[in-house]
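Weekend entry, working from home. Most of the wet-lab plans are on hold until the incubator is repaired, so I used the time to fold the two sequences that have been sitting in the queue since the last round of cloning. Logging both here for the record. First:
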Amino acid sequence: MIMPLISLQSPETAAKEVAEVFETFKPILGHVPTPLQLFGVSPALVQSMGTQMSYYFFQQKELDPLMLTWIRYLNGRQLECRFCIDMNARFLLEMGVDQETLEKGREDPGTIPLPDKEKALLLFVLDALGDSHGIKRDSIDALMEIGYSERTILEAVAYGAYSSYTNTVLNIFQVGE
């Protein structure tokens, strides 16, 4: 395992504002995830990450946790973030996705067994992340016709973009490689 290029913030020595973010997620995840420890080097960045995670995990109700995990997994694969791929593969398996489905979904996201509505949003987010200039209004209208609001569409895309941001920073500092 390659050591990260900068030091991670250990939970034991974290400043109060960083420790508060760490403590929010430790009971749920059983530990302080490595990305939080990296972002914990900057209190402002870890608080931003904590706010994002809290919103998507605890507050919003429109985006299914399984779909969000697929977004993180496939985005990690696209950006070659080994840590993100492995962590989210483990989460998907714990959520009941079998190994064969995981492999098929990795190769062809259209095969992922989600309800049609969620699959449409997942594929839209992946398309948006792959070609941010290529999205057309009719794609958004199609999602709205099946019941998504503009807010939910925006939040799903923002979640994917935030995942890209996190994956990129982890890659730059070689966290989890």
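Second, folded right after the first finished:
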Amino acid sequence: MKKFFMIVIAIAVLSIAGYGIAYLVSPVTSIELEEYVHEVGISCPDAFIVRNESVYYATSAGTVYDSTQEGDRVARDTVISTVYNGSVDTSVLRELQTIDNNISRLRRREAQSTLYSPDTASVESEIASRLNSIPDLADEDNVEQIHEYRDDINSLRAGEDISITAKIDELTAEKTSVENSISTGKSDILSDRAGIFSSYTDGLEAVLSPDRIGEYSVSYIRGLTPQNTRRQSGSSVLVGDPICKVMNNHVWYVLGIAESSDSSLCQVDAEVTVRFSNLSGSSAPGRITYVSEPDENGEYLFLVEVSTFLESAFSYRNIDADIIFEEYSGYRVPSESIRTGDTLDSYYVYATVGSETYRCDCEVLYTDIDEGYSIIRSTEDAENKLGSMERLVVGER
């Protein structure tokens, strides 16, 4: 009997030992830890840029001339274009353009520089700054800027008066003299708003106004097609032809179409990030200001207000945009790898470096129940940070 019990005990010991050995040598199920950004948003491949903008039309037939360059910022009540009655020699227009370009360049320098300040200390500081920047300009092969800096600095050192205002006045008088040589009359076009100048028009300026979006349906917006035209300076125009436009550069909008499945996200006053696929990956913060009622297909319009200046946004009407409502940055892990800590709102995972395994306390930022994954990051007081780990332990041994 004693022998029988000894055999049973021996078998039990061998079984336990075998299980232990199998446990120790069995491989750990693990995956590589990689940083991940999860976004919750709406894709709008056929969105429109909406702006407050003014289009200006010819009040007389003749030759149009732009005293403003494409993309320049203009002030209210300033001359932006001129229509000369009849035809004008192209050489005269080129001379006018050269003068206006020089005036614009000087005005930009005047706004940005203290080189022409009556304060001696400011002048000396500006000279030193420009001297220090010349090597960088040389690396960029910016010869024109180097010559400009050199001439100004040499003039100052020689004690010459290089007042920008005086130069602008001189060029303005020269322009007046050239204009007086044109025998025909003229009609100046003045801007009624401050903003960005453009000689491109598309026929949608009055339609895609922020105040009118509430009048439109999804089907109407889908049917809009911009008729992009550019009227060249020096070309002939008739009465009523569009000449140019000025666009508000402080606030503009993105008009998108969404589906009913996105209705829980798309709410008035929701803060979003707008990412533009065809604007070199540019993005800007925005706020939803309008959401229409859904149509029979469950689709609806929404309008995002953007207050960030993006130069490239003023060259487009149709855009491919993503509207991002939430963004989570961390590590994407299988939800099953997350363990609950001592309290219901504390979590941790096991991760490895080489052959060593560590407990890493973490926060769960986002969980996709259907897909079975979560986005996590280390807690601020975690002793073992996920960023220092190599692999995540997913399952038991």
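Plan for Monday: verify the second prediction. The chain is about 25% helix and 35% strand.
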